[in-house]
Amino acid sequence: HRGYSEVYPENTLIAIEKAFEVGADRVETDIALTKDGHVVLMHDRTVDRTTDGSGTVQLMTLEEIRRLDAGSWKGQSFAGEPVPTLEEALELARGKGELNLEIKVSNNTASYVTETIRAAVALVQEHEAHDYVLFSSFDFQALQQVQRLDPDLRVLLLDWQAPSGSFDYLDVAINQGFYGWSPTAQYATPERLQRAEENGIFVHVGGGPSPRLREFVEMG
């Protein structure tokens, strides 16, 4: 989650590299778009929490963001760690494992989300990274945009909501032909997991570690 973020500064190259080193086969990270059209790894809309700077990513240039220290907040031994570009993350992950690129929609304009998706998909295509990249989002329409741009890209629907009698996000993943569906452990019931399997949907149980981990492994 954001690389090996428990120990290393989140969404940095060292966090991604160390996650693969300790045996992770997929690393999740978050993408954002700079003012001048570059895709960087950043969870928040602003750089305030995870760097020594201040400001909104979409109002800053790549040069401004690259001057920031994205490591010191986690520990002085990580001082000087920069905010990476998606291009750097793609190069680092090649041959080591998969990258799950989360598209953030909340509090962002539709046009900004669209431009972020377009730029990220173009980079994945340029690097011929289809076999080790997937896109994820809580917003199924964002994933539909990815599919329209490149039907060969895998998309994963994040789902932290309890299913209601009339609506289940798993059905959205099935009906839209998504590659995968990611419920929290709380809502990953045997019935839903079986339905996902029957419909060829890859399941990634998300939302952090769970005491049910062994149970999920035994289910396959």
Summarize the topology.
Elements lengths: L12 H9 L4 E8 L5 E3 L20 H5 L19 H8 L4 E6 L6 H17 L6 E5 L2 H10 L4 E6 L9 H7 L4 E4 L6 H9 L3 E2 L9 H7 L1
Parallel strand pairs: 1-3, 3-4, 4-5, 5-6, 6-7
Antiparallel strand pairs: 1-2
Helix pairs in contact: 1-3, 4-5
Largest sheet: 7 strands, mixed
Low-confidence stretches: none
Count of β-strands:
7
Helix and strand run: HEEHHEHEHEHEHEH
Amount of helix: 25-40%
Percentage of residues in DSSP E strands: 15-25%
Question: What is the residue-mean pLDDT, rounded to a whole number?
Answer: 95
Terminus-to-terminus distance:
21 Å
Shape: globular
Secondary-structure-based class equals alpha/beta
Widest β-sheet, arrangement of strands: 2-1-3-4-5-6-7
Rg value:
17 Å
Number of helices: 8
Q: Please, could you describe this protein's structure?
A:
- This protein is α/β, with parallel strands linked by helices.
- Helix content is 33%, strand content 15%.
- The protein is built from 8 helices and 7 strands.
- A 7-stranded mixed beta sheet has the order 2-1-3-4-5-6-7.
- α4 links the parallel β3 and β4.
- The relative contact order is 0.10.
- The model has no long low-confidence stretch (mean pLDDT 95).
Question: What key phrases describe this protein's structure?
Answer:
globular; alpha/beta; about 220 residues; single chain
